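To fix ideas, we give here one paired sequence and structure record:
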Amino acid sequence: MHWTYACPACGAFLNPGESVILVGVQDDRRTLMAFNPEPGNYEIHVPPHTHVLPGTRWEFLCPVCQKNLAMAENENLCALDLIEGEARRRVLFSRVAGEHATLVVADKKVTGYGEHAPTYVNFFLQMKHLL
């Protein structure tokens, strides 16, 4: 299946190839990062000499408009749009390195992927206005 992701702010497509490309910022470091597009697959590619230490919180920016993708409602999550034909879904993912949590929000349902997803699924079920 081909997964197409877009920036929720500017609509730019973020995976022109096989990876979702985002700008990662952590303290004074800024780098391009490539993520596997399949929800629940936490494979990541970073440039040589870039270390992503477990537990560190990263900011993720759209590489086109530079908008911060973090959610106002939960400081540990970022949001992207998943496009399949005419359908758009919101995909949320943890910005804490080593935390495996991805949520796909569609049709007032939340589907969680990854071992840490249940915490966030419960949060979203309580925040019904976000669905």
User: Anything to note?
Assistant: The two ends are 25 Å apart (CA to CA).
